[in-house]
Amino acid sequence: MTYEHLDSDLVNELLDDGRASLRSLAEELDVSVTTVSNHLSDLEEEGVIEGYTPKVDYDAVGYDVTAVMQLKAEGNALPEITETLKDHRQMISVYEVTGDYDVIAIGKFRDTDDMNDQIKTLITDPDINQSNTSIVLNAVSENEQFELDTE
Predict the structure, then answer these.
(1) Is 129 helix (H, G, I), strand (E, B) or coil?
(2) Strand, helix or coil for residue 147
(3) CA–CA separation, 7 vs 48, rounded Å?
(4) Where is the HTH asnC-type domain positioned along the sequence (predicted)?
(5) Which residue, 75, 69, 47, is CA-closest to 131?
(6) How far apart are CA 38 and CA 149, in angstroms?
(7) Is 136 exposed, middle or buried (0-12, 13-18, 19+ CB in 10 A)?
């Protein structure tokens, strides 16, 4: 096998089965276990692969309210606001964005009362000038990853 696309192929195999053994990856990619191990270590060191975690169905464990918050912030307070949101355990994504708002944060909550209480606490920061919260009615696609090109 050519090693030209081995890293991409390895990532794609792990996207398909994150619990695959080194041996099964080596067999699938037609290379040695040592080669897979070395490339996997390199990908981890380079930050291409950032850990191995299960995909959790939050609805199934009682977090069936998803809220999307849009925030306008004082310019110099943006790093502090995003750090606070990032550190909140139920915020699953926090983005600094262009457009009408400065931050978009997505959180998972047990119910609308839980969401309301936590969002009110989060947006009491005086450096947040404006907020808009939307509740997701239907998650058509969520937490999806895509295979890397190998061509």
Answers:
(1) strand
(2) coil
(3) 10
(4) 3-64
(5) 69
(6) 21
(7) middle
Structure confidence at residue 123 (pLDDT): 83
Separation CA 136–CA 114 (nearest Å): 15
Paired sense of beta strands 65-73 and 128-135, if any: antiparallel
- What single letter denotes the amino acid at residue 24? S
pLDDT at 149: 87
Q: Are 72 and 131 in contact (CB under 8 A)?
A: yes
Which domains are seen in the chain, by residue range? 6-45 (1.10.10), 58-135 (3.30.70.920)
* Number of helical (H) and strand (E) elements in the chain, helices listed first: 5, 4
The 10s digit of each residue's pLDDT in 91-105 is 999 999 999 999 999
